[in-house]
Specification:
The protein is of the alpha/beta class. It folds into 2 domains: 171 residues, D-Maltodextrin-Binding Protein, domain 2 (3-Layer(aba) Sandwich); 137 residues, Periplasmic binding protein-like II (D-Maltodextrin-Binding Protein, domain 2, 3-Layer(aba) Sandwich), CATH 3.40.190. The chain is 42% helix and 16% strand. Strands 1, 2, 3, 4, 5, 6, 7, 8, 9 and 10 form a 10-stranded mixed beta sheet that branches. The radius of gyration is 20 Å and the shape is globular.
């Protein structure tokens, strides 16, 4: 009875396109919304004649569902956003190791799990956004510099509770260690113009309203806003170009430990890393290709080239707990 109740709670808010699963179809559990994955699955099916069944929902709930289902799961693949979430799923024993020449050729090593548990399939950068009417671009430089006194009362940030914030801080711990990162966080908190926002879109709206002048956002949120408001006095600035490079993250996927069709799932994973799929990813959500041989979408390319931080993204998961604890200690809410 308890197990049934838990399962019913985990399935609340889950949407599904799973029908009767055939032996040669691939079943995907995905925290990415349907409109961002269905065009990819349709194109894959057209190319290979392999049908993709899928179920979408919150990433955390799907991870718990996979744990609960165990060997009885229908899922062959789990897709989600942020390397921290992918790392966590791997740490829970939900993925099997997959290493193929296709994946290694298509995807750089820093966007893949070192043990082959998951692969990044699209890239988003988390960088500085600023009001062009109130900020001199020569004053911008790094994530670390946003802690300097010149930004007092001028900074807006997303809440520390969100995975994208946790991953950025984890990357700072990787590069600088706990003590220096703690000083950076303290500086950010001192410079806040307002309580941290729930969403990146809220950060940008706060900048546009004059509540603050600079912030940190994922690039695709900026792309969505500028598509709606092309004349908004808002631009991206590529952080840390003289040092570590811009912090990047991924949406990605892994093959589940108990996949019933691992061969088909691996074929799908490889296809998602191909040039054709990477172009679809970029067009759907203003993201950068994980395949470095593929050019970014035209609108995304217009934001300019930048150096990426090439820290292996497994580190954002490994250091996530330390990042959370440090933010709590320094009062970043």
């Amino acid at each position: 009875m308890i197990k049934i109740l838990i399962f019913s709670l985990l399935t609340m808010g889950v949407t599904t396109a799973i029908s009767a699963v055939s032996d040669d179809s691939v079943t995907v559990y995905s925290s990415r919304k349907e409109h961002l994955i269905k065009p990819l699955f349709d194109a894959f099916t057209k190319d290979t004649n392999i049908k993709v069944e899928y179920l979408t929902g919150k990433g955390g709930a799907l991870i718990e569902r996979l744990k609960l289902e165990g060997a009885d799961t229908q899922a062959d693949m789990f897709m989600t956003v942020d390397a921290g979430n992918l790392w966590y799923a791997g740490s829970q024993g939900l993925f099997q190791k997959v290493k193929t020449a296709t994946l290694e050729n298509n995807l750089p090593i820093y966007l893949r799990d070192p043990n082959g548990l998951w692969a990044g399939l699209s890239v988003r950068a988390r960088t500085i956004v600023y009001n062009t009417e109130r900020v001199n671009i020569s004053d911008l430089s790094t994530y670390e510099d946003l802690a300097s006194p010149k930004w007092e009362g001028r900074l807006c940030l997303r809440t520390s509770k969100k995975i994208y914030t946790k991953s950025l801080v984890a990357s700072l711990i990787y590069h600088h260690g706990k003590d220096k990162t703690g000083d950076i966080i303290s500086g950010w908190v001192n410079n806040l113009a307002a309580t941290p926002n729930a969403k990146d879109s809220h950060v940008m709206n706060a900048i546009l309203s004059g509540q603050c002048d600079v912030g940190l956002v994922n690039t695709y949120y900026y792309g969505r806003l500028i598509e709606k408001k092309p004349n908004a006095p808002l631009k991206l600035f590529w952080a840390n170009q003289a040092t570590t490079g811009v912090h990047v993250n991924v949406s990605g996927a892994g093959i589940t430990k108990y996949a019933k069709n691992p061969k088909g799932a691996i074929q799908l994973l490889e296809w998602l890393s191909s040039a054709k799929a990477q172009l679809i990813y970029g067009a759907l959500n203003k993201e950068y290709p994980a395949n470095q041989n593929v050019a970014a979408d035209r609108a995304v390319s217009a934001w300019g080239a930048f150096k990426q931080d090439k820290m292996n993204l497994s580190q954002v998961g490994i250091l996530q707990a330390k990042a959370v604890k440090l933010m709590q200690k320094k009062g970043y809410r």
